[in-house]
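#structure-requests
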Amino acid sequence: MLQLVLAASVFTAATAVYGAIGLRWRRRARIRREILGVVGALDLEPYHAAAMESRATEAAAAELLLGGYLDIDGEGAALLAEAGRDPGRTPVHRLPAALLDAVRRHDPEPVSIGWIDWHDEEYRARRSAYRSERDALLPDIPRMPDGDGRKLLACCACTGVTLLLSFWAVAAVLLVMARPHGVLEWAAAAAAAAGLAALWFADDAHQAVLARTACEDPLGDRIGAEPPHPSLAALDQQQRFHVLRSIGDHSRWRGTDQGLAEDGAEGEYEDEDDDWLDDDWWADAYHYRAANHEEEPDDKNKPEDEPDGDTLCTPSGTCPSDGVPASCPCPLRRP
């Protein structure tokens, strides 16, 4: 008789638990379809999509390079081309136009695109204004419920889980302790054991529902699936390398001549390829060595066998003060 009661109780509990899981699955699946429908219907501007990937400046630089407004060398320094120096010629889109104005403010000296993107306040303000205006046009995207801010529901769920675990433990102990008699009790005991096993895997079923209905960043997934900006796709390999080299340089603002120190102050940029080894480097090194030789030697650190400047030359005709001929007192050094 106890097995029948346990079977009915476990079946009721399992039905309630898996019913709640099924209702949550249905609700999350419906919200997920709504989210994907709204995101799929979006008509994103290419520069807006690039801005969401933090590649708007890169796309603008590519358009200016392809349009003949800029020239970017192998070091990443951007210079105005013939079309860029003409004040009457400006790109149609506001974002490459803002980048062209920023480069014109530094003309005729070169500037890296990365420095403009990070440190040019006017360009950053115009880029942020464009992003804000385009984001304001996006429709409201439904959010997947995550339970945040619903403390009462969370407390009820915690209490329910505690009661369910207690029930499962008591039912398992009673099922093991009570010996069934007859076919009906054995069948009830088997049904109760199957219900307890189903309750044991209820959390795995819940996690599977959450994983299959997950929709964390649908807009980011949509943008990631979009093709790159047309200007970026039109670049050849060398042009792409130059643009990436320039956009990745956040410190140099005057090509290879100026840079930013660690505290953000402007200062000279030291290039490893500077021609510091000029034709007179050996003369400077010789004078530096002669100046060290003219210094007064330390008596304590002087070797015992080293002669002084007033010592007469040795019979071999060598003078110990060979570096300072005028101070040699010996007759061998006199004309």
